[in-house]
Write a structure and sequence with these properties.
About 65% of the residues lie in helices and about 0% in strands. It has about 160 residues and is an all-alpha fold. The N terminus is likely disordered.
Length: about 160
């Protein structure tokens, strides 16, 4: 298979030299250095963002579950204590039943959101998070960060 214009620079293909398939920035030391520095920074940024989101989600789950348990215990402590320990009448305690329900609900939620995200990703035909962001920004209307005049719903809902 011969050289093509998409593999290397167009001047190589026009002058009859075989194309190396390398981008033109590989010959430029400044561009190569900037590219090498940008990739680890971008990866580190993504990792930090993932850790932050996981931390916020975990804190939200713990706060919600803890608040619900505290309200249940405050509302009726006797019934709450009966649900904590298994008895002959109730072979499974309320706490273990609640934890099992929480586990299945969490599994269904994660799988559902993952499936919806996967379908949206494939339907949009994107291959990276930057392509996804650009595609979504082209579909949905932009909301100004610092509006000098109040934002009207007609402006926001107006199609591009």
């Amino acid at each position: 298979m011969g050289p093509t214009l998409s593999q290397g620079s167009s001047s190589d293909a026009v002058q009859g030299r075989p194309s190396t398939g390398a981008p033109e920035s590989w010959g430029n030391p400044k561009a190569a250095t900037a590219l090498e520095e940008a990739q680890p920074q971008q990866r580190l940024f993504l990792i930090k963002g993932g850790v932050f989101l996981a931390t916020v989600a975990t804190a939200g789950i713990l706060a919600g579950f803890g608040t619900t348990l505290a309200m249940a215990k405050k509302k009726n402590p006797n019934w709450f204590n009966k649900g904590v320990v298994a008895t002959a009448a109730l072979p499974e305690s309320g706490a273990s039943l609640a934890l099992r329900a929480l586990g299945w609900g969490s599994l269904y939620a994660w799988c559902g959101v993952g499936l919806i995200s996967f379908v949206a990703w494939k339907a949009l035909g994107v291959h990276s998070i930057n392509e996804f962001r650009n595609k979504i920004q082209s579909i949905f209307p932009s909301i100004p960060k610092n509006a000098e005049h109040p934002v009207e719903w007609e402006d926001i809902l107006k199609s591009k």
